[in-house]
Amino acid sequence: MLATRRSGLAFCAAAVLSAFLAKPALAADELVISTATPPHHMQTTTMTDFVAALEERSGGALTGKVFDSSQLYNARDVSKAVARGDVGMAIVPSPYLSRIEANINVLDLPILNGMTEDARAAMLDGPLGTELNKMLEAKMGVVVPGHWPLLGRVYYWSTAKPLTNFEEFVGMQVRIPGGAAPAARVEGMGGVPVVMPGSDMPLALQQGTVDATMGSIESVVQQKLTDVGVRYGFWDQGIVGFLVPIVSQKYWDSLTEDEKALFTEVWNENVVAQRAEAIALDGEYRATLEALGVKISDASAESAQAMREQMMPQQQDVVSKYELSAEIVGLAEAAVK
User: Fold this and answer.
1) What does residue 114 show for φ and ψ, rounded to 5 degrees?
2) pLDDT tens digits, residue range 215-257?
3) Alpha carbons 103 and 30: distance in angstroms, whole number
4) How far apart are CA 296 and CA 59, in angstroms?
5) Nearest Cα residue to 217 out of 301, 268, 292
6) How far apart are CA 304 and CA 281, in angstroms?
7) What is the DSSP letter of 206?
């Protein structure tokens, strides 16, 4: 009888211990993040700063690890990895995702020419961003956890041909990262768009395969494109790049409702700081490049407006060909007004 009782007590104790030890398995998975940029690039630091803040605010319940420099996936392939659940999170330049959800092309349409970074960020934090997030989530089976980080102004950079006005783009071979709207823009200026991943772009510039490239000012500094001959830059008051945060459904489902709310809260707070830093860095990097002998010119408000009108046929072609939602285009037009 005593032996039976002891056996029962031992069984209960084992069950309690087993339940206790099983608890960590119910906690959130470690968040694995993939970036295509080096450790000190803003895209990578955005994620490392977020992970640090998330771990601190959650008291260590939510942890993560950032794999930079395309250790896991490059920028072109990482969105598929997140959708499969192979990676927990990534921030993807919007042109790459416009191949999946065509309505994202609205962000690069000429109608937005002249809008400031802050105005575009406010537009994405409002109804337009909400609708694009819903569309992307439905297409990819991922979660967009909050606001979009700012990639910054997208300039044009050349090696041999000065870039000081729109007329100089006629006949130029211009590398673009992808997207229907960026291609239409280059065509609208009289240039020839060449879709090419960022990893191939430096050699293409050096060898003259392309005459110029579309890219952020940070990418020129971080990739040391002055070493391959970049000498001119041009801001057309056109595209301001953003990064789309996507989280795998698998990771998101591992969070409690409170953890999901905390995740979004910390993420959005991080984005506020990131956007301010991105705008400040644009000025700092511009000074750095000018000190290296790069001549950077800006389109005037008048010429940018004139080019916007000139590009309207290309804009309509994009809207029609890719069947952009009338509601989405209307929200963009309302933001401009």
Assistant:
1) 90, -15
2) 999 989 988 999 999 999 999 999 999 999 999 999 999 999 9
3) 32
4) 46
5) 292
6) 23
7) H
> Residue 191's closest CA among 202, 207, 175?
175
Report the SS3 class of residue 187. helix
Tokens of 122: 């406010």
pTM (2 decimals)?
0.85
Tokens of residue 216, six digits: 């952020």
DSSP characters for 271-311? HHHHHHHHHHHHHHHHHHHHHTT-EEEE--HHHHHHHHHHT
- What CA–CA distances, in Å, run from 113 to 75, 302, 336? 26, 11, 9
- In DSSP terms, 46 is beta-bridged to none
pLDDT grade, residue 131 (50/70/90)? very high
Dihedral over Cα of 226, 230, 233, 239: its sign: negative
170-196: pLDDT as tens digits: 999 999 988 889 999 999 999 999 998
3-state SS of 85-136?
CCCCEEEEEHHHHCCCCHHHHHHHCHHHCCCCHHHHHHHHHCHHHHHHHHHH
Helix axes 301-310, 312-321, angle to 10 degrees: 50
Distance CA 209, CA 158 (A): 12
